[in-house]
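#structure-requests
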Amino acid sequence: MLTKKADPQSTSTRVVVGSKNPVKVGCTREAFFKAFGGEWEVEGVDAHSDIPAQPRSDSETLLGARNRATHAKNLLPEADFWVGIEGGVDEDPVGMYVFAWIYVMHHSGKCSQSKTGTFYLPPPVVALIQEGVELGHADDLIFQAQNSKQKGGSVGLLTQGLVTRETYYQQAMVLALIPFLNETLYPNH
């Protein structure tokens, strides 16, 4: 199990998030602290997802998260962990729903991933996305908000603040850390 050294002279473990979005950096910091305790130096970098600004499928969204983690590693290879978080939408017979993928890479080569829960978008937001508008911008237009994706996000707006974007991502981030919390159970993960 990954544990932090008790020595106050030791340096903190470095985690690089493939985004400068404060929500993504904050949920990562909180999840690593909850999972492992200790000191974590968590910073965000501008890392490309190499997918469209609004991912429209499960596989495209996962690829975006993996690409962000990989680009973060390329930008700061001396870190201990690299994290990619990518939100996306997909559709089924019920409607358009939202989710995010978390992808975590460790300097040992071990990787892990996890997905958030899902929720359905209201028709006015769906209509804007189908016109090519990114979800965050659609939310801002429909809810008369400003830069909502760096605050509570769709989930915060639709739950009236009961679940924020940061808490929504944080649970999936902790789930992505399971192989690192249980290294003997996931030796080749």
